[in-house]
Amino acid sequence: VLDLRREKHFATVLCGLADVTRREITFANAGHLPPLVIDGGSATFVETAVGPPIGVTRSAAYGSVTVAMPPGSTLLLYTDGLVERRNETLDDGLERLRTTAATADGPLETMLSRVLTELTPGGADDDTAMLGLRWS
Amino acid sequence: VRDDTGDADFVPPPFEISETHDDAGAFVVTVVGEIDLSTIAELEQVVDLVLAAAPAALDFDLGGVRFMDSSGLAVLLTAAASVSVLRVVDPSPVVRRVIELSGLDSILRMTP
To answer: Average model confidence (pLDDT) for chain A?
Structure first.
């Protein structure tokens, strides 16, 4: 699909398979930042078994991790532009996202707007994409 | 470096690259500053020159790197695909976490 040596870049991929009946999502992760599950005022990063991004090596193996999605919980996926800032580690940005998302309630669209506004005041350096999924 | 402040006195953050090598063909590239779209071409140029010399081993000393985006990772990975022994020496916390969270710590070996 992609070869770093040819294209000079790589891509991260986070793949999720939802089992609607069991209320579970199974993730495989190629170098992407961890998904966030927000439920009842608290937010937790899914500890995916992260492998290398695609385009880097042909011999990578990827593990899968399954998480429960309780009724009313929200899954948040995002690109690094949302959390990456100068003069701090990614952990600082991730923690800012976690605490902001935990207290951002209301409809899904409101939640996403609030997270985006609070994490990228004055616009982000890098491009930013978010995907929210609410389990009703 | 982009000047998005509109300030005429804007001073770009310092960025330095140096390269040394020994007789056995072990190269060390040291970077200080921020690795992003404004500095990546300079790093790429140095790395291309080093790779052209077919190094036996290549160390990147990134202890003085205060920011590194995915363009920096791409340059490191391109180098890793071309040399048999590549190490990231003394990575700053910023560099360490980018490499770990990107699932690249098995390819970009960090020491210590």
So the answer is: 93
